[in-house]
Amino acid sequence: MSYGSTPPYPGPAGPSGPPGWGGWMPPPPKPGVVPLRPLGLGDILGGAFATIGRHWKQLLGVAFAAYGLALAAIAAAIGIAYSAHANTLEHVLDADAAPGWDDVAPVVFTFGAVYLFGLFVVLVANALVYASCPAVLQDAVLGHPSTFGRVWRRSMRRVWSVLGAVLLTSLIVAVPMVLIGTAFVATVITLITLSSDAGGFGWLILIGFLGALATGPLAVWLWVKFSLAPAAAVFEGQGAVAALTRSSRLVRGDWWRIFGISLLAYGMAAVAAYVIQLPFSFLNLLGPGFTEDVSTSGAALTVVITSMVFFLVTVLIGQALTAAFPQLVVSLLYVDRRIRTENLAPSLAEAATAPPAAY
After folding, report:
1. Into how many domains does the chain fold?
2. Residues in contact with 269: Cβ distance below 8 Å, sequence separation at least 6, in sequence order
3. Hey, is 252 helix, strand or coil?
4. What one-character DSSP code corresponds to residue 100?
5. Tally of CA atoms within 13 A in the half-sphere of 84 that contains its CB
6. pTM of the model
7. What is the per-residue pLDDT across 308-339, written as a single tens digit (0 to 9) for each?
8. DSSP letter for each residue of 309-350
9. Which residues cross the membrane (predicted)?
10. Does 36 reside within a domain?
11. Predicted pLDDT at 284
């Protein structure tokens, strides 16, 4: 079932039909996880939880596959970077005097490249998870059964359009993040070198923090404006730019409501991820690396890299277990906006009685 077509019913509410006894109106049909009418907050949150309950195998399967591959790629990149600069790192850490910029520059640039590579890999993994949530909802809203293979094929078919939409949105939102990251790196370099040639980084620190404060509100506004693009890319088969345009039109006039519900969903997912990651954090603190002698640079680097890898594993496990929920909420907001503005409910009710489309 594609959600791209709009039935020719007049008005946003569609035909009401004849009233029943005493003006009683029959409840709207509910073939799947949500009633086919404009959705309230309870409908959206309840529908997201119901979808997870019915289709958790498909959602977790895609999430663990996506983030597992991302973790393997990032770990390999970190290993290659460390192997290339192991001697330089030991020299910097063992030096009696504070190292200069020429000493730390190769390490900073290499691990900066690893960081950018990691961001891209995580974006691809997120795009696959973002595509899987509308793919699952295509069946969940209509009450149709689903399988992992069915969801995987749908997600892979639309992942590049979703990635394009996510990447374009991320480039906009990344401006304040890059500025704050620049300020942080400049601060770290200043603290490490503690030499006169690092004095110029003070301007970078100031510009980074002030720039992040100036561009942050605009980035949030654009993020909400384009938040429905992954759902549009999957439900309607839109390309990246067309999905962004479609999201902008659907969000118009309902920005604050979408912002509030989305923020609530991401907050709930963040709390759940923290609770999930907490036991792993205790295991990391009690791990063997923190009981070893770290007086030498080699031992210190081993502890740092072990902790970094363990941290990545912990974060990705938490992400895999919680990433689906906010995306399901956002996808249901897309369905709600289509019902409110384009009278999608009769089309969904008709599709619910038809056999599932083959993928």
Report:
1. 1
2. 322, 323, 325, 326
3. coil
4. -
5. 13
6. 0.77
7. 667 777 777 777 778 899 999 999 999 999 99
8. HHHHHHHHHHHHHHTHHHHHHHHHHHHHHHHHHH--HHHHHH
9. 34-52, 59-84, 104-129, 159-189, 201-224, 255-276, 296-317
10. no
11. 62
